Amino acid sequence: MDSRTQLTSSPFPVAETVCPVLKNDWVNDLYKHLIVEAPHGAAHSEPGQFFHLLCPTIGDKAPFYRRPMSIYRIDKAQGRLEFLYKIVGTGTATLAQLEAGETLNILGPLGRRFDFAKRARHIVQVARGVGLATLAPVAEAAGKLGIRTTAVLSARTPRHLMSVEYLRSMNAEVITVTDSEGTSDVAAVERIVRRLIEKEGGDFLVTCGSNRLLQLVQRLGREYGIAGEVALEQHMGCGNGMCFACVREFHAPEGGITYRRVCWEGPVFDIQEAVSW
Amino acid sequence: MVDMRVRIGSIELKNPVMPGSGTMGEGLAHVMDLNRIGAIVTKTITPDKREGCPPPRMVEYRDGSLMAIGIPCKGPDYYIDEILPHYREYGTPVVCSVSAPSVEAFGNLAAKLSVPGVSVIEANISCPNLEEDGRAFGMDAEASARVIRRLKEMTDRPVWAKLTPNITDIAAVAQAVEAAGADAITCANAMLGMAVDVESFQPALGNITGGMTGPCMRPVILRMAWQVARAVKIPIIGSGGMASANDALEYLMVGCSAVQIGTVNFIHPTAMLDVIEGIEAFCRRKGIARVSELTGAMRSRKEYREQQAA
Q1: Is the pLDDT of residue A154 over 50?
Q2: Domain that holds residue B289
Q3: What pLDDT band is residue B136 in, cutting at 50, 70 and 90?
C-alpha cells in the first residue's frame, strides 16, 4: 500500500501500522517468538485482544487475508508487542521467514479483552498450546490490580512450556503439567484446579487452547458457581466485525444455538456460553 | 483544488468513493473518520432475523476469496434502534441495503426503513439467495423490474438496484430496472463459486456455494459496468474488485459515476481514503477540475491516436 500505511501512530484506537521487527526467533522446535516495535499498539492493547497481521507473500505462498494473533506480551514501557506462534499454515509459514530489521504491517488492537478487574480476587489460568501465549498478559494486568494469579500450564514436554519464567516474573504462581511426564491428563488437572478453588480461594477461571480443558473448566465453573472466560480461535477475514466470516456456535442466553463473531463479540467469551468442539 | 463532488440522481456525494454493502461496519469507525467517504453503505437488512450460513464461511485464494455468509441480520427494528444511530452523527449519507424473499416484502421493508438518517435504499436483488441454489430476483429482468417498481411505490427515497453478475446479458436487466424507475444501478454483486476440501471429501464452505470477490473479479465486473453504461442513462456505481485509485479510475472511465470499495476493506480498512486521495491526485496531474468529468472519459484507441496527432 501507499504512504498511509507507513504511519506509526493514529488518532484512532485501532490502526494499521508498519512495525520494525526486532526479533523473530525459535523458542523450541515448534514455536517462534516475534517482537515488533509498535508504540500505538502497545499503548492501546489490553489482555485478550489480538492483532491482525499482514503476513508477507513469499514465492507461491500468498496469504490473501491477514492472520489473527493473540498478544503474548504488551510492553507499554518500551512500546513493543510480543507474539508466540506455531507454524500451522501459509500465513504463519511466511511470517516465520521475517527477520529482524524487516517490517510487519499490523492492524489492531482488535476484539474484546478479558474482563476480570471487578470480578476476581484469585484468577486460575488453565492453558495449553497457543493458550500459553494468549493468557500470559492476564497475569501482568491482574498483578497491577492486586489480583492473584495461578497458572496451570499444560504442554507436550517441559521445553514447550514457554511462558513459565515470564509468568513467575509477574509474581504469578505456576504449576506445570506435561504429556511426557504423564502429569497432564484431565483428571490430574481437575485435582489441581479443585484444590486451587477449595483451598486457595480461586474465584475466576480463564482458559485457552484446549477443548478438553475448556470442558473441564465449564464443568467446575458450574459446580462451584464460579465465573470465567475463554479465548477462542477461528479463521478470520477482516478481524474487525465487518465480514462475519469468523463465527462460531454459542449457547444463546434465551436457549438454543447462535453464531457470534470471534473477532467482534470475542475472542474472549463467557465460559458457559462457549460451545466446546 | 479538484471538485470531488458527484451527483447520483437527487443525491450529492462529497466524493465518489463508498464501501460495498457488507464490507463495512461499526468497527470501521474505530479505524477512520467516516466523514471522509462519499457514503456509508450498510449491510443488507432482511425482514426476518437470520443467523446466516453454517461455518466454514470463507475460502481464500491468491487474489480474492469465496465467502458464504448468508446475510445474518437482526431485522429492521434492530437496524433502526441500534445500527443507524452509530452513523447518523456523520455528515455522510447512509445507503441502506435491503433484501427480501418477495416483491411485497421488499416494498414493506423499504417503507419501514425510510426513516430519518436513511438517504438511499439499495435493493440487493443480486445477493445470491443461498437457500434457493443461488437463484435471485436479479437473474430475471422482469422479476428485477417488479421489485424496483414496488420499491418506488413504497418509499420516497432514491432506489439503487444492485445487479447480479450471475447472468449472461446484464445490460437487459439494467434496462429493465431503469424502465421500472431505478434512480441508479450498482454493478455488481459477487459471482457464485464453490470449492472442495479434497482431503476430507467435503465442500469447503458450510453452504457449499459462495460469492467470489476481490481483485480477481475486477476485469469481469468492469466489463459488465461498461456494458451497463452503454445501455442506460441513469448513474452507475461500480463495484467489483477495486483495491486502489487506479482500479477505481477504470470504473469511472467506463461510465461509472461513483465506486464501491469492498473486499479490500477487510485487509486495509483505510483503503477508501487511499482511493479518494489517489483519484484527486490523478485529476490534479491530468488538469481535470471536476472528478465527474472522468465518468465515461475512456476514448477509443482510434480517437486517442487522432488527438495525439492533432
Answers
A1: yes
A2: 6-51+69-191+216-309
A3: confident
Can you tell me the distance from the alpha carbon of B35 to that of B38, in angstroms, rounded to the nearest whole number? 8
Phi and psi dihedrals of B97, rounded to 5? -85, 135
Q: Among A98, A207, A92, which Cα is nearest to A150's?
A: A207
Least Cα separation, residue A103 to chain B (angstroms): 16
User: Which residue in chain B is spatially nearest to A108 when comparing CA positions?
Assistant: B31
Distance from CA of B299 to the nearest CA of A (A): 29
What's the predicted TM-score (pTM) here? 0.95
Q: Does residue B61 lie in a domain region?
A: no
Q: What's A122-231's CATH class?
A: alpha beta
- Return the pLDDT at A7: 55
The answer to whether the peptide bond before residue A11 is cis (omega within 30 degrees of 0) is no
To which residue does cell 434465551 refer?
A254
Chain B contact probe: residue of A10, A64, A246 with most B CBs at under 10 A:
A64
Q: Is residue B119 situated within a structural domain?
A: yes
* Three cell numbers, residue B75: 431485522
Contacts of B192 (CB under 8 A, 6+ apart): B128, B134, B166, B209, B210, B211, B212
> How far is A11 from chain B, CA to nearest CA, in Å?
9
In this complex, the residue of B30, B52, B55 whose CB is nearest that of residue A13 is B30
Residues of A in contact with B61 (CB under 8 A): 64
Total domains in the fold of chain B: 1
Report chain A's C-alpha Rg in angstroms: 18
**Whether residue B128 has pLDDT greater than 90:** no
What are the catalytic residues of B? 127
What CATH number is given to the structural domain containing B85?
A: 3.20.20.70
Write the single-letter amino acid at A272. Answer: Q
What are the sequence ranges of the domains in chain A?
Answer: 3-110, 122-231
pLDDT band at A3 (very low <50, low <70, confident <90, very high): very low
Smallest CA–CA distance from A62 into chain B, residue: B62
Look at A237 and B67 and tell me if their CB atoms are within 8 Å: yes
Cα B221–chain centre separation: 11
| Phi, psi (rounded to 5 degrees) for B257 | -95, -20
The answer to whether position B179 is within a domain reads yes
The CATH code of the domain at A3-110 is 2.40.30.10
Interface test with A, best of B58, B83, B217 (most A CBs within 10 A): B58
Q: Do A264 and B23 touch (CB under 8 A)?
A: no
